[in-house]
Amino acid sequence: MLLYYGFAQHFPTQPMPGWRLGYALRRFLVSHIFRSCGTGVNVKQHAYFGDGGTLEVGNRAQIGANSRIDRNVYIGDDVLMGPDVVIMTGGHEFEDPSIPINKQPESPPRPVRIGRDVWLGTRVVIMPGVEIGEGSVIGSGSVVAKSIPPFSVAVGVPAKVVRRRGERLAPAPLINHASESER
Questions:
Q1: Residue 92 catalytic?
Q2: Who is most buried in 10, 61, 119, 172, counting CB within 10 A?
Q3: Alpha-carbon distance 178 to 153, whole Å?
């Protein structure tokens, strides 16, 4: 871990010179850090995952730059993750108002599962206990507080399913901005 956090996380990513070395070095290190790590995994710069010992990452998955991934997370094959994604599995108790929150215990961890072929946009936040179904797309800036069914497109705060993948949106009508005299 010392090699990853002290050295390899700073190596460049595409398109900067040396990006291939950066990807290869990070891939090698996380394959020895994570509980399980598939082939072809790409870890972008400054990704943070604690000691990584409970993280499972599938084949060809990509962990975005500056992402923060908590413990007890499963990431499926072919997951694409934008920068600044946060995946949380724990929290803090706060119910007893007679005790300062920082003196109350941590909540028990609630694992997160991300199915195969999922795209997490930039700055997505995934809350504890969430499962994102395979083939789903989560729009940038969304906060996912509840599980998302497979092949869904979800956006917003909190994230809501707006459609299923494969459903075509009706094309917007063409607007002719020509004035009456130009017609």
A1: yes
A2: 61
A3: 36
